[in-house]
From TrEMBL:
This is CHAT domain-containing protein. InterPro entries: CHAT_dom, TPR-like_helical_dom_sf, TPR_rpt. SMART domains: TPR. Residues 621-868 form the CHAT domain.
Amino acid sequence: MRDVTAGSESVLELLPLVFADPGEARARAEHVLRAAPSPVHASVAHQVLGIWQRDFGDLRIALRHLRRARDLAARAESADREADVLATLGVALVHAGRTRQGLASFERGVARGSGHTRARVLYRRAYVWWVLGRHREALEDVRRALPVLRQAADDIWTARALTLRATVHLALGAVERAVADFTAAERLWDTTGQEHDKADAVESRGLAAFRSGDIPAALRLLDEAEERYATLGTPTYNLSIRRCEVLMAAGLAPEALAEADAAIALLDRIGGQSTRKAELLLAASRAARSAGDAHTAIARAAVAVRLFAAQRRPWWETHARLVVLQARVAAGRRSGRMVADAAAVAERLASFGSPAAPEASLLAGRIALALGWTADAERHLAVAARSRHGGPPTARMTGWVAQALRARAAGSRRGVLEACRRGLDVLDDHRMTLGASELRAHATAQGAELAALAQEASLAQGGPRRLLGWSERWRATVLSAPPARPPDDPALLTGLTACREIAARAEAARMEGRPVPALEREQRRLEREIRSRTRHIGGAAAGTGDRLDVGRLLDRLGDGRLVELAVVDGRVHVLLCGQGRVRRFPAGALAEAVAEAEHVQAGLRRLAHPGAEARLPLVEAAGRRLQELLLGGAAEQLGPGPVVVVPPGALHRVPWALLPALRERVLSVSPSAGSWLRARETAPPPDGRPVLVRGPGLATGGAEVPGLADRYGTATVLEGEAAQVPRVLAELDGAGLAHLAAHGTFRADSPLFSALRMADGPLIVHDFERLARSPYRIILSSCDTARLATVGADELLGLVTALLPLGTAGVVASSAPVNDAAVVPLMLSLHKGLDAGLCLAEALRDARSALPGDAVHQATGWAFAAFGAA
């Protein structure tokens, strides 16, 4: 270790080092104190240790070091040294929740310091003003400090001041000013060795990207900052707060809540900053509210309110009070007092210049509407509606929701529909900036209320065609365009390969009865990295994508029918499209239908095994009840032609072929009418070839594959060691027909990691998304390959929905466990029909009718469905 006691200059180098390499600075400071230093040197060493403990350790220890540093500086009779320590102590006291003492320490520091030192004290007081939410005072102190720091050519502190000013601008919604300051600060950081400050600059750019509406860039920059902090060995509480905000905007509230709670637990364990804990509690409460957990949101926000009040942080306290009110409303509470409280919060937030003020006005308007106070509601909603014309997408969405509610209260159906259209256009522009299908799907949740309001207005007065248009407006939007991805991402490919290898090793260990916790931990780590890489990908461009052309849909249907199930206020409405028109039929309650579908799924699981024949009549009876609930009077109006069913996400697991009116029909399922139309108009590849894949571990060994190889002759057959993921993907790319006989695994916790088991490990949804063009037709002959997760407003994530935007026009898959032996004759009959020129839905109908009449084979036939239009 170099001699840091040789002179004042070398010891003073420890202060910048604590933000360049915190661990090294701590070690050197401890070395100084062991060498019987002078009061000045000891003061510096204690200050360094105090900063380290303040930011990365126990705040109580930090305060002991900093008070010792202050006393030693006074003994040395160095006014500037004392002023510098007083500023550091002031920051620590404020973070400990002792705001009055902290501000008093700054007053003494400003009075004691002069020139350059005083400017540094002013910068740190500006930081404290920002922590306290007093943004005008923060900007004033930065204004006073910056010229002096620049004149002294102090690049490090000038960059810090610019970064702080940019952060304050962001809190006030001035994104362009913030970006300019961040850019200027980063140019200065490039000339220094301040690695911790550089990491902070990357984190700040992530926040700026988020405020500019670029969520993928924000996630990428925050992940990069976390990697830099990890290299330095420093905690990342502030980064966790910022990432929570971004994750919530991306529709990933449960992840945000988990991150905030984990950071709170760590902070409590080490006795860290009280101010950071309060901010993390606020982030957790917001995430819990967004995740639909109102009681957790109330509990977290109430504690945050108490902490912020004790810390004298009114800006933060008011934001926490807003979350308390929002969560109470979500829990079903309404009162006149709550209207007044929300209005007071809105007024206070507006006085702070907070971008959250419209949210509070919207809340006051909602409560007033629920109480029938129309005049009060109009006043508050009018204030909230002003935000619809500017600011980030979330603020504009808030404004358009307020405008739609105003129009509904005024009885203007046209006004409701216009506000909903404009608001969903904002969401569409935002959604298309996201490259990952996962983020696009989750982001739609922000438009659920607007879409519901529009459907409600259309049902009341607009007619079935308009209701169809609005039902499509927010359904399966993630399928309207393929997920964006870089043409070549070696890091993502490496991660996918490593994850596959670990998953294969874990599976082998389980089969041998060996423990797998370490392998499972590594698999989860790799999955997190893959998820992060895909979320960093930006969308190609903003835009609303395709809109359903109802006339074109009706033309393409020919003599067939399309049955779209719209849900308005918990009731199912059947929109029957065909013969040049759209008709509406009322049906049952969605909740009853979902419960009945679960009973059917349980019955099909039992029928997959011999000996459960007695359950067959019960399953058939449940099918009749489902028909009453889901089709109503439309069941008698389906005509003789093919039928396409478009269910809402909550009903994606219904075995539609079980319903009596659909059992003998050419039947296909689609996530949306627009998706079916795109599939119908997708041309097959000119030289599409058949590909047959047989994965390991099947009970029948994929017995249908040899027979299919004989049928197709020229088909590429991949089995044994040849059925490894890279080779399988290469052959699938652009194929005309693919048959995959492989074990399927559905991941409800992370649907894009749902997989088919290949010789070298799982073939996951993320792998399919790397295809230039997925096969025109795909047949998945194993269990549960059609299972999907409902996310966002009405989006579905899983294997089938990943394929449809990538060039696949038709898929056959199972939504339930099936009997492997009974699958073989079904698949052979299905391919016989395809070879005769039938489409998937026609071939599947004929294959079902050719099966033996026993319960196992009947259940197997019902479990499979044709998706799309090929």
